Amino acid sequence: MKQLKTARLYLKPANPKDAYFIYELLNSDSWLKYIGDKNITNLDNAQEYIQNSLIVGYTTNGFGLMVVTLKDGTPIGICGFLKRDYLDTLDLGFALLPKYEGYGYAFEAASATMQYGKLELKINRVLAICMKTNEKSLALLSKLGFNKIDTIKLSEESEELLLLST
Hints:
There is one protein chain. With 166 residues, the chain is an alpha+beta fold. 34% of the residues lie in helices and 25% in strands. The chain has 5 helices and 8 strands; from the N terminus they run ββαααβββαβαββ. The chain has helices at 19-26, 29-34, 43-61, 105-119, 135-143, and strands spanning 4-5, 9-12, 65-70, 75-82, 91-96, 127-130, 147-152, 161-165. The strands form 2 sheets. It has a 5-stranded antiparallel beta sheet.
């Protein structure tokens, strides 16, 4: 997997050494509220998540969610493409630790990811799914050129989500 670089950030494939960061991110209030509980209760669970979700994505698809770090190596979030069985094209995903929100990092990482998708993966259309109440993510997606095209329910019990497309 190729590492991406922006003016302030690196986007790199996750590895087992990222377990503490993944544990922290997946248990942050905003992750739990807007993405959901992945049941990452300890560092072993975090390493399993890295191996079974992130690394498997890289090896199966050639892309996936990458760890976003500051230039000094501090991990601050994840960003990348997902291939979901229920969508007809790639889905952009991103999340930051709350203390790094509001500095333009998510836009910078997502813009680099979208550019990579267009130039390297040769994809013209990208989807995103988002809770209707997640105003920050919806604003970012709008800034990236996404527009609402439909709604989607991931299961009978889940709430209706917005489906957006470039």
